[in-house]
Structure formats: C-alpha cells, structure tokens
C-alpha cells in the first residue's frame, strides 16, 4: 500500500486536545491540500506526523506504506521517507548548507556506505539551479540571515535532495512575495511524480493557483469537515470559513 494513512487520530499538546478524530489518506503521486482557519489544528497535525516530542497521540493510527510510525523517533520517520517543511525554518549558525544537506543524505545510506562527494555536489548544484538558488548558498550557514523566500527555497532544496516518499509542507507560502512564491511552487511542481505524496497546509487559495492540488480538505476544530477538488479552494476564497462553521453548528443542533 503506497499511501500515508491517518485513522481517527486524536492528539494533544500540553494536555489540550487539538486533533480530534482526524482521518485522511495521502496517496503517492497525489497532492492533497489542507485548508482551515487559524487554530483548526493544521500545524499541530504536521508536528504530530513528524513525531515532535511535545505532541502526544492519544489514539488512532499513522500508517506509512502500511507501517505504523507512531513509535518511531523523528529521525527514524525521516529515514523511512517522511519530510516536513517547517512554517518557520530554524537558523543553524556555524553549519553550512552543503554540510547540513550532505549529513542528511549520508544518514539515509546503509551501514558502511559512503556518499560520493562528486556525485553529491553534482546533484546539489542541479537542484539549486532548478530552484534558482545561487551557488554561494552552499557556504552560507543554514537559514542564517536568509529572507523568508530564501528559507522556503532552502526547505524545498532539502526535500529535492532527500527524495522522500511523503512531504508535509506547513504553510510554505507564509511570508513569501509573489516572485518567491512562484519560484518555490515551480520547484514543488518539478518534484511532483508517482513516487511522492504531498500534503500542503495553507490558509489561502493563492498557493493553490501555482501548485494545483488533486484534493482539497477543510479542517475545522481538529478534524476534516469537507473534502473536494480544487474548486473547493476557490469556494473558500469567495465565501470564507464561516459558512462551513455555520453548517457544522446547524448540523450539531439537528
């Protein structure tokens, strides 16, 4: 089974339940978008999937290609094929981008295997050109002094080099101007293919103008309340989230 399956997931942080019975299946080769108002649990879902230690799973399943990953550490999940692009990428002073990415790629090799430096830099430069990243980035410290657009392009560069099975992009459009958004979106679109499942988390339709999803899911109060195609995102842009909240309230009183 080539899919990331979330079944009736309940998760909390600091004793507060945020994800409340969420179910979702992300197939490889497809792009799924999750939209929702602030506080709906979208970023919490991303952190739970990645294994952030502050987030506790009370019940439910997270199956990656049929394997339950709930007990895996974050690095184990990454090596198994899960990638998370952060909403606010961290700065790592003193560590160059090239060395950081090289260490991450090396960590995915089998015991006793060594990364070929020439091959690595060839692939790195190829991906950097794809994302319109200047070669000087290789020597700059990870995200230190980077603009918002540079940080997000750097996240997509890492994804391109690691070649995950599933990528969770948490508000990749946050803080980007239109030019940076187009460059990042072009990079993501170039990486789309039958071996990669993508989960886009966003508030706004504008990202989905450039990365057209196969499916759109609306998350409210910790669960998926509406699903559809790309047309659903356009409807949300026009009507906002209140109409869905009103429908939920009306249904609850029936």
Structure description:
The chain is an alpha/beta fold and 254 residues long. Helix content is 38%, strand content 29%. It has a single domain, classed as Rossmann fold. Strands 6-9-10-3-11-12 form a six-stranded mixed beta sheet, sandwiched between helices. Strands 2-1-4-5 form a four-stranded antiparallel beta sheet. Strand 1 (3-13) and strand 2 (16-27) form a beta hairpin. Helix 5 (148-162) runs parallel beside helix 6. The chain starts with a strand and ends with a helix.
What does this entry show, briefly?
With 254 residues, this protein is of the alpha/beta class. It has helices spanning 42-50, 74-80, 97-107, 117-130, 148-162, 178-191, 206-210, 230-239, 242-253, and strands at 3-13, 16-27, 31-35, 55-64, 67-68, 82-85, 92-96, 141-142, 166-170, 197-202, 215-220, 223-228. Helix content is 38%, strand content 29%.
**According to CATH, what is the class?**
Alpha Beta
**CATH-level-2 architecture:** 3-Layer(aba) Sandwich
Mean pLDDT: 90
The largest β sheet comes out as: 6 strands, mixed
Query: How many structural domains can be distinguished in the coordinates?
Result: 1
- Low-pLDDT residue spans: none
Please report the total strand number as a whole number.
12
Number of helices: 9
CATH superfamily: P-loop containing nucleotide triphosphate hydrolases
Strand arrangement, major sheet: 6-9-10-3-11-12
Which structural class do the helices and strands define?
A: alpha/beta
Question: Considering DSSP H and I runs of 4 or more, what fraction of the residues is helical?
Answer: 25-40%
């Amino acid at each position: 089974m080539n899919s990331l399956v979330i079944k009736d997931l309940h998760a909390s942080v600091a004793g507060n339940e945020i994800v409340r019975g969420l179910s979702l299946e992300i197939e490889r080769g497809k792009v799924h978008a999750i939209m929702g108002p602030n506080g709906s649990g979208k970023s919490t879902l991303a952190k739970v999937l990645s294994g952030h230690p502050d987030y506790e799973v009370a019940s439910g399943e997270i199956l990656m290609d049929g394997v339950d990953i709930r007990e895996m550490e974050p690095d184990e999940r990454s090596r198994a094929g899960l990638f998370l692009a952060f909403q606010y990428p961290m700065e790592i002073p003193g560590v160059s981008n090239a060395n950081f990415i090289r260490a991450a790629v090396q960590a995915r090799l089998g015991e006793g295997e060594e990364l070929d430096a020439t091959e690595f830099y060839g692939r790195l430069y190829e991906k950097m050109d794809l994302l319109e990243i200047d070669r000087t980035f290789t020597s700059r410290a990870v995200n230190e002094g980077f603009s918002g657009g540079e940080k997000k392009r750097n996240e997509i560069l890492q994804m391109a080099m690691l070649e995950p099975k599933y990528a969770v992009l948490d508000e990749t459009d946050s803080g980007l101007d239109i030019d940076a958004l187009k460059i990042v979106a072009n990079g993501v679109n170039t990486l789309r293919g039958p071996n990669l499942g993508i989960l886009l988390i966003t508030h706004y339709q504008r990202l989905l103008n450039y990365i057209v999803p196969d499916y759109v899911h609306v998350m409210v109060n910790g669960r998926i309340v509406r699903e559809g195609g790309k047309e659903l995102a356009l409807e949300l842009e026009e009507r906002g989230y209140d109409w869905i909240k009103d429908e939920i309230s009306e249904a609850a009183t029936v």
